[in-house]
Each structure stands twice: as C-alpha cells, then as structure tokens.
Amino acid sequence: MTIVPVLKKSTVSCINDYRSVALTPIVMKCFERLVMRHIKTQLLPSLDPLQFAYRPNRSTDDAITTTLTHLNNKDTYVRMLFIDFNSAFNTIILSLLGLNTSL
C-alpha cells in the first residue's frame, strides 16, 4: 500500500493542509471484498437486530428513530455509540511513514 499526501487547500501553511490517501492495489481490493463477503455471511445471523452499522438497508436515521421510539417507554434506557472517522487521517504521524513533513 502506498500513502500519498494530497492537498486539502490551494495554499500550504502547515502539515494539516495535507490529506493522507492510501493507494491500495486492485488485487488487494478484490481480496478485501472476498474476505468481507465471507465475514458478513458468517456474522450477520449473529448480530443484534438493533445494530445499525454495517447492515444492509440500515442508517443512522433508523438508529435515531428507534432510539426515540424506545425512550418513549417508561423506565427504559438506551446505549449508543456514534463514531465519526472524518479526521482519522489527520492523526497519522507522517514522519513515521517516511513521508517528508517539511514545507
């Protein structure tokens, strides 16, 4: 896999102006799909029916609607976890990957 820094903005003022993009070979992408398909066929029957992530025809809107409906019942509680990976690549230390961090 190759990590390539791509500019987020037209001008560079700091290292956070770059976005790390992973270029995965096509063979690996095909292998990942095969493995994911196998895992899903094994895993889906055992998932909780109230899990919304990585399920076909499910969304965060469905999770919120179900939660609000559930909270209308007296003496109930809800456990929720929402994760946002939008800035995940901003936490990568580029120097450890051997990328030039000097501007």
From TrEMBL:
<protein>
    <recommendedName>
        <fullName>Reverse transcriptase domain-containing protein</fullName>
    </recommendedName>
</protein>
<dbReference type="InterPro" id="IPR000477">
    <property type="entry name" value="RT_dom"/>
</dbReference>
<feature type="domain" description="Reverse transcriptase">
    <location>
        <begin position="8"/>
        <end position="94"/>
    </location>
</feature>
<dbReference type="Pfam" id="PF00078">
    <property type="entry name" value="RVT_1"/>
</dbReference>
<dbReference type="InterPro" id="IPR043502">
    <property type="entry name" value="DNA/RNA_pol_sf"/>
</dbReference>
